[in-house]
Amino acid sequence: MNDVQGYMARFLNRHDTYCLQTPDGRYTRRYQRVTEELVTGHLLGHHTLACDAMDIHGFTQWLCFDHDGPDGLARLDQLQDRLAFLGVVTLREASRRGGHLWLLTADSVPAAFLRHLAQLALRVVGFTCEIYPDKDKGLGLKGLAHPVRLPLGIHQLTQQRYPFLDVQGRPVHGPDAASGLAWILGQHRNSLTFLHAAVAQLEMAIAPDPPVFPRASRSTTTGLIAWVNEQLDLREVVAKTRPEVGLREAGKGYIGWCPWHDDTSVQYDGTPGTPSLYVVRDRLHGWSWRCLSTNCGANSGPLHHTFDWLLWHQAGQLPQAMALANEWKGTST
Ligand SMILES: [Zn+2]
What we know:
Blueprint: H1 3-11, E1 18-21, E2 27-30, H2 36-44, E3 49-52, E4 59-67, H3 72-85, E5 91-94, E6 99-110, H4 111-125, E7 130-132, E8 147-149, E9 154-155, E10 160-161, E11 164-165, H5 177-185, H6 192-205, H7 218-221, H8 223-231, H9 234-241, E12 248-250, E13 253-256, E14 277-282, E15 286-291, H10 306-313, H11 318-332
Antiparallel strand pairs: 1-2, 1-3, 3-8, 4-6, 4-7, 5-6, 5-11, 9-10, 12-13, 13-14, 14-15
Helix pairs in contact: 1-5, 3-4, 4-6, 8-11, 9-10, 10-11
The chain binds zinc ion.
Residues 258, 260-261, 263, 276, 291, 293, 296, 298 line the site of zinc ion.
């Protein structure tokens, strides 16, 4: 599969119809096949495509939050933070006004499910914006879902190509389509299992009496444990103790291979293994990690902090974990 085909596989929910953006920024519907040539033209800036947010059965491979307000990008940054904390990887894209936040999925999933997740997340962060798909159900062969301008193309009204942004709001790829394409094809797509886990956590967060994520109680009682949790960079701790994890950036967090269960082997249905160890730094909780696979012991229980990683690394032996922390503290002062 070449890069354009990879892009099509991620963003096209339908291949039998599309919309073209006109110079005034509106869209005209075409009932023609979406070909590789057509998509290549979009990426090169010859014309601009918008494609349906779901297929005729109501399934989609992405959800797009669209915030048009002057503070849109800042709001979406907040939403991206909250989702990152739950292990959901999203990609923030600038737009003519405000921005878009894309959530890509590894499989085609029901639009109703993704919309449920999106609505819960918006309730938790306390603002609203447009969500595409904007309907829960498929409309059949004759029905048309709301089109969304595909990323990396040129906006016909401004003739600008809007980039995806990093945490600081800087473009994560070059101004040309090729570098944007290479970047987006390397981005993590969320699996349905992990999204289910995020929905469950969001539902808990908005429950009438929300349980708070407990901080590891040991961290307040032992200075050394607090030092590990507050001073060490968990990414470095992981690289030092379990280099096979191979953490790489995924939205605002990091994903790698879980050392506590086998996520590398081919699944029963023939799909390749998925890295499932998730590491993230959150303003409120500091560094934390978990395994996103529900088949793994490191999936459940309270939030795992950096010291918990040492504990897992030393097979649950507290004295050994403390000894390792002591050794590091000794060399750091
Ligand atoms: Zn695991």
